[in-house]
Amino acid sequence: MSFTVLTIPCRSDNYAFLIHNESTDETALVDAPESQPIINEINKRGWKLDTILITHHHIDHVEGIDVLIQEFNPTIYGNQDDNSRLPKLDVAIRDGQTFTICGQEFQAIDVSGHTIGHLAYITKGAAFTADSLMALGCGRVFEGTFPMMWTSLSKLAQLPEETIIYSGHEYTLANGRFAITIEPNNPDLIARIKREEEKCSKGIPTVPSSLKEELKTNPFLRANQPEVKRLLNMEDANNVEVFAEIRTRKDNF
């Protein structure tokens, strides 16, 4: 990637992401759970904030935007189809639209399910997925349907395996405790849980992750795998039915 991404812990378990291109001296932010940690990081580095990309309307992803506007006057991007629930947009975008920020081409893709109108932002080598695809998990299906969420996750699963996934919360250990109930003998999952536990014990964020490791360990991406279907006694079920079963189990875990 021709830019740097900083993971900014916010609130109790949120993440925001600062994208900075040193060559162009441009900085963008993905989501604003709260303002002060973001302001502190920008000022510490002597940057300015040019752009904010909003993934979805939930308060724990947009609450800091008003203060950041007062401080830096950035350009606000978000989903045109959900603009009635978002802070005022300067640039309204739709599914599939491409745009350039920080000297890099990005594409917005609709990943509805957690909410209707949730966007992920994709660029070469990185995907900012917020509460759609998460580390060892996925967002709870609040506004959409299970088929909708499976479709969204399937879009993300088609990205190059080396893609780095920047998701919105530090839920990885809890997600791991659930994932192991689905595939208790998955060696990649067992090894990953150990690595993530070590990171957390040292105060190191477990986000971002790679798509490659998510495909090997994330139960919500693995609903199409014959071994997962066998373990769930759902060999004859379709992928959406298996995903719905896994998501329902997680909701009740």
Mean pLDDT: 97
Strand content: 15-25%
Radius of gyration: 18 Å
Structure class = alpha/beta
Task: Describe the main β-sheet briefly.
Answer: 6 strands, mixed
| End-to-end C-alpha gap | 38 Å
Which blocks of ≥5 consecutive residues have pLDDT under 50?
A: none
Helix content: 25-40%
Q: What topology, given as strand order, has the largest sheet?
A: 1-2-3-4-5-6
Total helical segments? 9
Work out the number of β strands.
14
H and E string = EEEHEHHEEEEEEEEHEHHEHHH
Outline type? globular
Walkthrough of the structure:
With 253 residues, the protein is of the alpha/beta class. It has helices at 36-45, 59-62, 65-72, 146-157, 172-182, 187-201, 211-217, 226-231, 239-251, and strands at 4-10, 14-21, 26-30, 51-53, 75-79, 91-93, 98-101, 104-110, 119-123, 126-130, 133-134, 137-138, 164-167, 209-210. Strand 9 (119-123) and strand 10 form a beta hairpin. Helix 5 (172-182) packs antiparallel against helix 6 (187-201). The mean pLDDT is 97.
